[in-house]
Amino acid sequence: MSIFHLPRLHFAGAAITRLPTGPRAGWLDLETNQAIDDGGVFDTDRPVQEYYDFLADSKGHNFEGNGHFWVDAKVVSTELTPGEVATEDLVVGRNLDFWGHFCDYTAGTANRSRVFDVDPASNWTTTLMVGQLALGRSGRSHDVPYLVTGDVNGMCPPRWNQFHTVLHQFAVDKVEGLHWLDGVADSPVLTRLREVVETEADGLVVQFGLTGQKHTGEGQPDIWQLRGSIGAWYRSELRSYPAGRLITPRTTRSALPNVSVHVTDEHVTANLVTTTPEVDLEVRTASGTLLATLPSTTDSRTSGVVVAARVDGATGNPAEALVITDPDGTVLSREEETVVESDEAALFLEHENTRTGEDHAVEIPVRSYLRGVPARVDRVHVRQHVNPAALPLADDRDTAQLVAFLPTGQAEYQAEQVLSTDEHGRGTITLKGVRGGATRVVLRPEGTPEPTGGTAAERYDNDDAQGYWSAVGSVAVRVLPNHWHLDDLPDEDVTFRTLYREALAYYELQYSFMRSEVLSLADEFKVEPYARLIWHVSAPEHKGKTFYMPPTRDMSAPQIRMLLRYLLADDAQRQTPPTFVPQQRKLGTITTKDQLLHALYQAAAIELATMVQYLYAAYSVPTHGAGKKLVERGEWTPEQLLTASGEGTETWSNGIRGSLMSVAREEMMHFLAINNILMAMGRPFHLPKLDFGTFNSDICVPLEFSLEALNLASVQRFVALEQPHDLIEEIEGNDSTVLRADGEPYQYGSLSELYAAIREGVQAVPGVFLVKKGRGGGAHHLFMRESVNAVHPDYQLEVDDVASAVFAIDFVTEHGEGGQIPSTLPEEESHFDTFLRISEMLIAERAKGPNDRRIPWNPAYPVMRNPTLKPGNPAMDHVTHEPARIAMKAFNRSYFMAMQLMVQHFGYSPDKSLRRSRLMNWSLDIMTGVLRPLGELIVTLPSGRPGRTAGPSFELDSTPEYISRPDIAVEWMAREFHEVADLARKCVGFGLTPTVGDLLAFIGDSLRTMDLKDL
Fold first, then answer.
1. Which residues, listed in sequence order, are joined to residue 323 by a DSSP beta bridge?
2. pLDDT per residue over 369-380, tens digit each?
3. How many CB atoms lie within 10 A of CB 765?
């Protein structure tokens, strides 16, 4: 049973937590989720910094903690025979990782697990959430891969909590996603564990203890000593609470923490994961019979799972209570014979809605055990114990009742109840939230005393003066504030200021990591560009995922709905489609380093051009809000809206437009991957200057690149670009050579051939990689795909040797062609398949033409092909309409600055992770918050040419170059950003949101005030 079942794996290492400490200072009212100061509720119209100044030293050592949790652990031993620890198995020394859940929106790898307080005013409720177990890599998973991965669901509440010492546990259910990967057969212990799971058990259980918490400095994470074990899990056991007979110091008040034991005919196995006894411990029956002696000299590689020979000569599980004594016979701990617990021990409840009569009650399961075995319990007292520290503004905080219970068969809720479980030890509790705040619900078997004390604070016992709460079952409950009035707000009142005051200010004031690491929730110009992302990670269906925002999980349903209403209103006004009126026309092979570099430079240019042309095609398709207006005008059908723009920003169905945007984002990852290979070869970050008037004559493949509206022709070009080269058949007797415009032959027949040649070249040309191992740099983890995350959750584009370069090429071709990186998940749609699907959709759809004729339907605006601001090139379309020219200039200069930030990042800090770089994050801000709204505006503006709208030209007057003086670099860039901000503000009159100029000015100001060490 559980870790008491063989085989077992034991692991050890360190756990790292970044729990935010600000909310623990006591300046937070959980009844309303409002920040307070010594004058009451803090006015959210005041500057945020004023509140930070007020908190001063009370913010704690990690005020900017982002709630991330991860481990640095390795398997230290295996156990196939009771008590015989072995280290010969190949899994010993391999890494164990606890990753977070995969997020469909960001499609990232290296996802972090989470740590959060259910009740920030409590020492008892710090909870973990893990999304993915990954075991077996050595170094990077594409060097020595994982052996086992598995999906993890549910929370990991703190168990056996004695402050700075705590146990956590989770299970991987085999029906929810447990994957045995290649190489398992080479490990005897994993082979045996797999047999047990597949034939009799229900999954894996992972138990670990955290001890010795160490603060590493102001603003730095806490580091814990970690050790734990992995075994088979059975559904008769709890997912999050350790199995076995529970023995605690509740009645003795000794220093020995909780222990659980399992007794068989031959052995007594003890779970001592949170302690290392200094003396031998004796396990006895309450009447004094010695069952076994647990030696204090047990091998530390057992991670606290100690096996001792049974010496009493009896068999079976003793039917009387157990105790633990020291060698002198002093009783240190006694068994809690009846244990009642719930896996739902970290619970967030919506407040009841008294206006509508909806109680928003939840039913949670409870399990009862008698001397470690599931059993019926007839009377379990269920009672709440409020935490008065969570209600600093309430006069009645000592007597407040936050939840009500609905006993089985009863019609009325009660303040407390008595329940019973069935013969399998199963029961349920139904409860609802009646007042915001935090409380603890005790699950007290008949005969176990209540916590003592004359006040609520004494009974809650936040400092563990009684030694009571770690020995009894309980559920930490957070009742969210009564926000139902927000549902009644008229749409016109759901402004950003309202959203900030009613929902976002609490997080801005109490949890500063968003402001310091991502974006300030007080700045509309930062929130607006990421409204879609914010909605997707805050959607109610994602509350059970590690990526859910806020990570505190305490945003109420009305607040979430208000966020969606703001998002929809913002999307509806982002773009107005143009009005159409009757026209009034007026008259090889790679064998040398130089060849490899040339091919890589060609690939970088092609990837950048590919990304740009996909973005242009995406911009040419109306946004969902604009598409709805076309439906209202009768120019589109609802089905055409769904095809082109999806179901709206609140869903994951984004139509053709969303598919193009997703592919373009992945092309940016390809561009970065190619640059990582170049930089590993000693070359600087390479940013090609694109000229679509000449580009097709400069590349080494016979493909056509242009900025063109989405239509069947452009999609066919995209299909040809992404087509695997092995799908192209040769013609018998063919000896012709295709020539470029300059008379030179193309070196490769397709982009696929180019990458195949590069892949061979990086392996064939010796000594091209100069970077040291582990200093690949350019680490990035977004838009990597779930199929990659399933088997390589640690991959981040790094390149530092031949193997990682080959893997990077495979990563690029996996996106484009598919079938390059094996995964435990079904193969995802490649770019080639995406464009085939879009082509089929366009072919199938028809529009009503003249004389009721059914003609091909085109969802795009009539944008120019290869628009330009400069006259004279017959291959380019010259834009002459002045408003469009102003917007295009703002777009091109912003595009230049986004690229300049990239160049500065790689020039100044090539080893730095991209996601930790302020320069790279600002570059991404520009792409999302500046280029996208400008591009969406430009495609709706007249161009000066009959029947055509303008389009963003992505023209650079010069190539961004690295500025080696940091002080000069930031000053020059700041000046440029302010100039572009002024240019963007001129576009507000054409329909551009003012937040674009605000964002550009913000980056300029931030550059001037930033510490140059942050570059």
1. 284, 334
2. 999 999 999 999
3. 19
Task: Report CA 23 to chain centroid distance, whole Å.
Answer: 22
Q: Is the pLDDT of residue 495 over 50?
A: yes
Q: Rg for the chain (alpha carbons), in Å?
A: 32
Can you tell me the distance from the alpha carbon of 99 to that of 723, in angstroms, rounded to the nearest whole number?
Answer: 34
Taking the C-alpha atoms of residue 193 and residue 187, their distance in angstroms, rounded to an integer, is 10
Among 101, 152, 19, 149, smallest CA distance to 542 is for 101
Tokens 């190949």 locate to: 90
* Residues 128/155, Cβ–Cβ less than 8 Å: yes
- Please return the burial class of 739, using the count of CB atoms within 10 Å of its CB with bins 0-12, 13-18 and 19+: exposed
Spatial separation of the C-alpha atoms in residues 1013 and 1006, rounded to whole Å: 14
Question: Which residues on neighbouring strands pair with residue 292, listed in sequence order?
Answer: 283
Tokens of 716: 């066919």
Summarize the confidence of residues 73-96 as an average pLDDT. Answer: 97
Task: Identify the band that residue 740 occupies on the pLDDT scale cut at 50, 70 and 90.
Answer: low
DSSP three-state, residue 72: strand
The neighbour count for residue 176, using CB atoms within 10 Å, is 12
| pTM summary value | 0.90
CA angle 483, 486, 489 (to 5 degrees): 165
CA distance 630 to 41: 46
DSSP count for the chain of H helices, then E strands: 24, 37
The sign one gets for the Cα dihedral 764, 770, 772, 777 is negative
Tell me how many degrees the CA angle 153-158-159 measures, rounded to the nearest 5: 110
**97 C-beta neighbours (distance < 10 Å), count:** 22
Q: What is the C-alpha separation between 548 and 844, in angstroms, rounded?
A: 38
670-696 mean pLDDT: 92
- Nearest CA to 818 among 804, 808, 828? 828
| Neighbour tally for 646: CB within 10 Å | 19
CA 451 to chain CA centroid, Å, is 39
| Cα gap 834→831, rounded to integer Å | 5
- Give strand pairing partners of 14: 72, 225
Own/partner long-range contacts of 646-649 (Cβ < 8 Å, ≥24 apart): 648/568, 648/571, 648/624, 649/531, 649/532, 649/535, 649/567, 649/568, 649/571, 649/624
Q: Which residue has the tokens 């280029």?
A: 931
Place of tokens 């007292």: 381
Q: What is the pLDDT of residue 586?
A: 44
Contact 888, 953 (CB under 8 A): yes
Tokens of 788: 């990659």
Q: In the predicted model, is pLDDT for residue 339 greater than 90? A: yes
Alpha helical stretches, state H, 367-513: 456-460, 496-499, 505-510, 513
Structure tokens at 687: 């940013």
Distance of CA 84 to the CA centre of its chain: 40
Average pLDDT (14-20) is 97
Mean pLDDT, the chain, integer: 92
Distance of CA 597 to the CA centre of its chain: 36
Return the structure tokens found at 941: 């503006």
What pLDDT is attached to residue 15?
A: 98
* 339, two tokens: 């244990």
- The answer to whether 651 and 536 have CB atoms below 8 angstroms apart is no
Report the SS3 class of residue 863.
Answer: strand
Structure tokens at 207: 């138990």
User: Six-digit token pair at 37?
Assistant: 């100061």
